[in-house]
Amino acid sequence: MSVFNMGYNIEIRNGKKTTYYYREDLKKMGFKFKKTSEYCSCWCAHATLEEQVEAVKKYCKDRKLEFFMYEDKYERSNNYRKIYFENNKPVFKDYYICVYCGMPIHEKNVTVDHIVPVKKAKKKKMYQKILQVLKIEDVNDPKNLVCACYSCNARKSSKGGFWVLRGFLGKFKIYWVLNITFWIVSISWLIYFLCTSMMELVP
After folding, report:
1. How would DSSP label each residue in the chain?
2. What is the structure's pLDDT at 3?
3. The model's pTM
């Protein structure tokens, strides 16, 4: 009997056939029904034995169900918000800064965001590689958790790409200093340009 070095989470979803007809089998195999969103659901279980995983994989293949597996370290923890606040103090008084837009947010209104989204980390090797390169061993590692305002968190959702870059850059004060400096210089040049243009129009 082979035991994995780490645990795995297994999800079974509707494939060419629906899981509804196999719900009793899935319950006996230790799976629990989970509603992931308004229109999506799956059957979930935790596995540590290779034989168990292979048996479930074969079961799904034979019945044309969708099988998906990922390591424990890519699962969202129940205490990630607590992890963030234990490792990050307010910027001033009880206020934090949204890493995406720079807006000050009171502690009670902070939404804690995973820079590398949990959904991407579970399914995309590229994002798993990013975590590995940055020496982030778990999606709930403090280095992958940031403060976000409700609006930015909703807009980002499980998006990757540029949002991930903004998330990591936004953690550094120098990024915001350069950002503010850029806008001050840009606005100053615009005002100067408009003023000189208007002066040239004056006879």
Report:
1. --EEEEEEEEEEE-SSS-GGGGHHHHHHTT-EEEE-SSS-EEEEEEEEEHHHHHHHHHHHHHTT-EEEEEEGGGSPPTTHHHHHHHH---SBTTEEE-TTT--EEEGGG-EEEESS-HHHHHH-HHHHHHHHHTT--STTSGGGEEEE-HHHHHHHTT--THHHHHHHHTTSHHHHHHHHHHHHHHHHHHHHHHHHHHHHH--
2. 46
3. 0.77
